[in-house]
Amino acid sequence: MAGVNALQWLTLTRHGESTGNLAYQAVLGTDAEEVDIPERDADVPLSDTGRAQAAALGRWLEALPEDERPTTVITSPYVRAHDTARIALAETSFAAPRIQVDERIRDREQGVLQGLTPRGVRTRFPGEAERLRHLGKFYHRPPGGESWADLALRLRSFYRDLQTGAPGGRALVVAHDAIIVMTRYLVEELTEKEVMRIEKEPVANASVTRWRHDGTRLAAVCYNDCAHLAAAVPPPTARR
User: Fold this and answer.
1) Does residue 132 fall inside a structural domain?
2) Which residues belong to the annotated binding site for substrate?
3) In the predicted model, is pLDDT for residue 61 greater than 50?
4) What is the pLDDT of residues 64-91, one digit of tens each?
5) Gap between the Cα atoms of 173 and 135, Å rounded
């Protein structure tokens, strides 16, 4: 994808652990049909561990060589992502760029299935469960929500604008697991089967995924890297 590949560095990180992540963990292995999250998705905050992860991310940014430090920082408007960026940059001593917010890198919208466990989807929306089985995760769009393919459409627009605004720059994008997975789909020109196979491995909270321009295109440096978190907090898990 030309717009993405014109960047010098592209670094993506998932937000730190949120209270929503903890709520999902609490229902794992139970018969629950719904996850108890009182806030709307955009307002779910970081947990204490998530704030510690964000600070550890900031210390990782501080330790980067000067020619790898971000010249552009863009975050999802969701509280858990924006706070991760804010806390991380507060840990740095270099002149960090102003945090920009872009709604195109918000989390995937799940419509009527929002907050439901797999059991809840099968019980309350059996027709949608069958459509998902038939179409596959990549193309299934729940009522009022988005498919993974829909994410690709808004991300293509986002990266075109990013290149226009920061040609040859070093971008840090703070967002969500689905955004990171679908960025791999675009940058690495993956197939549906390849990206859905990658999606089966959870993207860890505050993990780092990076690409560097090798003179021809963006080449992968690391994916879902958590080394900077090991000494600071327990390994992150769970989605949302």
Assistant:
1) no
2) 14-21, 80
3) yes
4) 999 999 999 999 999 999 999 999 999 9
5) 30
